[in-house]
Amino acid sequence: MSDTTGKTITCKAAVCWAAGEPLKLETVQVEPPRANEVRIKILHTGICHTDEYTRSGNDPEGLFPVILGHEGGGVVESIGEGVTSVQVGDHVIPLYTAECRECKFCKSGKTNLCGKVRATQGKGVMPDGSSRFKVDGKPVHHFMGTSTFSQYTVVADVSVVAVDKKAPLDKVCLLGCAITTSWGAVVKQDGIKGSNVAVFGVGAIGLGVINTANVVGASRIIAVDTNPDKESWAKKLGATEFVNPKELPEGKKIQDHLIDITDGGLDFTFDCTGNVHVMRSALEACHKGWGVSTVIGVAAAGQEISTRPFQLVTGRTWRGSAFGGVKGRTEMPTLVKDYMDGKIKIDEYVTHTQKLDNINGGFKDMHAGECIRCVVDMS
Ligand SMILES: NC(=O)C1=CN([C@@H]2O[C@H](COP(=O)(O)OP(=O)(O)OC[C@H]3O[C@@H](n4cnc5c(N)ncnc54)[C@H](OP(=O)(O)O)[C@@H]3O)[C@@H](O)[C@H]2O)C=CC1
Ligand SMILES: N[C@@H](CCC(=O)N[C@@H](CSC=O)C(=O)NCC(=O)O)C(=O)O
Ligand SMILES: [Zn+2]
Ligand SMILES: [Zn+2]
Q: Is 286 known to be catalytic?
């Protein structure tokens, strides 16, 4: 038990007060965890494009004021009544995709999407309907059930997993989103070994897909990005080729070019951009009869995907993947072990670091295009 157990903690957090505004460092009061809740001292957090998506106002579920962040690592400070899955002092990764092991979704064996806390999570509150965060007495919303841009956060016990204390939290925090998402999107799909694959968007997610496809033995991995600087990144992580759609002859669509160079199209494609036009290209670049396109990117409010239904009638499959289809409480300890054993790359993705008081600098880094992941030191 620590001397803060049962007390409100006053600490620093980056608060986004309104859509489109930069984050503001605030003194925040973090209430103790209630039943089946866990309070975590966050030590490190990545900044994901999805944080920027919600900050910008593009997220139809976005609520303000809010403490964003969902790619964190920290230490359990205290636990509420009934918590048995983690203990004070455990090193943990918060999970924006919960795993209760009791709900219809968890028991189905068909999905990692858990239903236990998703509704309240989407409303920016804890499962009992209230927030644990206040600034000057005013409640501030939680985000994705994690809010890792605060030095202390409170999460549901089904939304956190303990990991090996020897694992560096400034690296394995990226298993809270980017690395796990991209790893699972590939590993949980049969048939990638020996197949040709195209990956649209060479950010952290796209690079993770490229690297995992390489590890599982894809024969050809074509990276597609409009930023020419991404070619060296893609090849370093295992892409066999790089195509910049902006460098194609005028009027030539990227999907037609990919079909030409692959004798009819790709076995597997992945959208890692969040752009609905790219999603269409990724689907239409698939081989007739069997090609499978996975949407990973998150599109802005109001955006919709479209294609000719004939694309599906003729055997292409359009699917999506959230958190890589990974059940966090069950699978995360093994992912951490795989990282420690050198089987999963993480260090390579951390191109930038920032202190909490310059977290907006991390968002700027992301926009500059040369940043794969920025990890924020929360101390
Ligand atoms: N489904 C899930 O569970 C998850 C989804 N996501 C989503 O995945 C997406 C990728 O995330 P992340 O890797 O962090 O984002 P990044 O912004 O780092 O990467 C996206 C990449 O796509 C490139 N790009 C933009 N437009 C095009 C285009 N027309 N054709 C090809 N490439 C293009 C960007 O280039 P440039 O730098 O020039 O813009 C950038 O290199 C986001 O939408 C994010 O919200 C993230 C985590 C989990
Ligand atoms: N709030 C958005 C949807 C955002 C979204 O799709 N999130 C992904 C994770 S993105 C991580 O960086 C996800 O896992 N979705 C599943 C879920 O249950 O949210 C909107 O309303 O469009
Ligand atoms: Zn993310
Ligand atoms: Zn569940």
A: no
**The model's pTM:** 0.98
Give the Cβ contact number of residue 194 at 10 Å: 11
ipTM: 0.98
- 9-179+325-377 folds as Quinone Oxidoreductase; Chain A, domain 1 (3.90.180)
pLDDT, one tens digit per residue, over 224-276 is: 999 999 999 999 999 999 999 999 999 999 999 999 999 999 999 999 999 99
Question: Which residue type is seen at 324?
Answer: G
What are the boundaries of each domain within the chain?
Answer: 9-179+325-377, 189-320
Asked about 173 being catalytic, the answer comes back as no
In terms of Cα–Cα distance, which of 379, 356, 299 is closest to 67? 356
d(CA 283, CA 268): 9
Level-2 CATH architecture, domain 189-320: 3-Layer(aba) Sandwich (3.40)
The answer to whether residue 37 is catalytic is: no
Length of the chain: 379
Question: Which residue's CA is the nearest one to ligand 1's atom 34?
Answer: 201
User: Which mutation among 273, 363, 370, 373 tests ligand 1's pocket best, with the greatest number of atoms within 8 A of CB?
Assistant: 273
| Digit-coded pLDDT (tens) for 19-74 | 999 999 999 999 999 999 999 999 999 999 999 999 999 999 999 999 999 999 99
How far apart, in whole angstroms, are the C-alpha atoms of residue 101 and residue 321? 19
pLDDT single digits (tens) 272-300: 999 999 999 999 999 999 999 999 999 99
How far does the centroid of ligand 3 lie from the alpha carbon of residue 205, in Å? Answer: 9
